[in-house]
Amino acid sequence: MNQISPLAFVHPEAKLGEDNIIGPFCYIDKNTVIGDHNVMQNSVTINYGARIGNNNEFMPGASISTKPQDLKFKGEDTICEIGDNNSIRENVTISRGTASKGTTIVGSNNLLMENMHVAHDCVIGNGCIIGNSTKFAGEVVVDDNAIISATVLFHQFIRIGGYVMVQGGSRTSQDIPPYIIAGKEPIRYAGVNLVGLRRRGFSNETITLIHDAYRLLYSKGVLAEGIEEIKKNLPLIPEIQYIIDFVQSSKRGIIR
Question: Who is most buried in 145, 148, 157, 172, counting CB within 10 A?
């Protein structure tokens, strides 16, 4: 049975699963689907188009599936998908999609800290930690297990690779490839994320190969030449292939 505060508003067309807790002053709009065992503390807003999984916790002031902050948005019928087991802290805002992609996606097992923003058509993977007041512009993609510190600004259309650590206060308009630390001013490659990779169970041998891949990649003035050096000198284990594919598919270029 759902526990709904008498001070909350739940639209009669909203679809709720089982055992959700909806606190006082929450607002649940029409055309919303909410799974099971979610907790919405006071003053949470679930806007039109939200699709929420199971076992998520929303702290006060969170606003999910908000109208996109995009002048091209003309009221098209779009959605915002939230997976399972996410902790979405105070005053987090997540916009729904636009006609560009139609959907904003936040995966599962993420921690989105206070006052951070996910704009329209972004795709956030699984297992990510995103710090206070970090802002994603439209159509940013974040791969699994990225750790992003506080007050980081991301330009639209960029991609952040998996297992990265991004220094607080950074800003970038280029892609951040996987497994690295990105920081300093202006933002640049600051080494392999050794501590993070060890915590995630990467072997010393794999970490060494990742380090060698970046040494070869950045040894050349032209990234395509660095990729060829990697292919010639290193075994193409999945982690190395991920780096190659990421760099070759980058549309905005990667940080150097």
Answer: 148
Under-50 pLDDT residues of the chain: none
Task: Read off the pTM.
Answer: 0.96
pLDDT computed for residue 106 by the predictor: 98
pLDDT attached to residue 63: 98
Which residue in the list 107, 138, 161, 183 is annotated as catalytic? Answer: 138
242: left (phi over 0), alpha (psi -120 to 50) or beta: alpha
Q: Is the separation of the CB atoms in 164 and 183 below 8 Å?
A: no
Tell me what pLDDT residue 170 has: 97
**What is the model's pLDDT at position 17?**
98
Task: Show Cβ contacts of residue 218 under 8 Å, excluding neighbours closer than 6 positions.
Answer: 189, 226, 256
- The per-residue pLDDT for 221 is 83
Q: What are phi and psi of 248, to 5 degrees?
A: -70, -30
- Give the whole-angstrom CA distance, residue 7 versus residue 202: 49
Catalytic annotation, pick one of 121, 125, 143, 161:
121
Measured CA to CA in angstroms, residue 172 lies from 74, 162, 165 at distances of 29, 16, 14
Angle at 29 between CA 25 and CA 33, to 5 degrees: 115
- Catalytic residue flag (residue 138): yes
Active site residue 29: no
Rounded to an integer, what distance in angstroms lies between the CA atom of residue 228 and that of residue 6?
A: 64
Amino acid 146: pLDDT: 98
pLDDT at 125 (0 to 100): 98
117 is catalytic: no
Of 83, 84, 117, 120, the catalytic one is 120
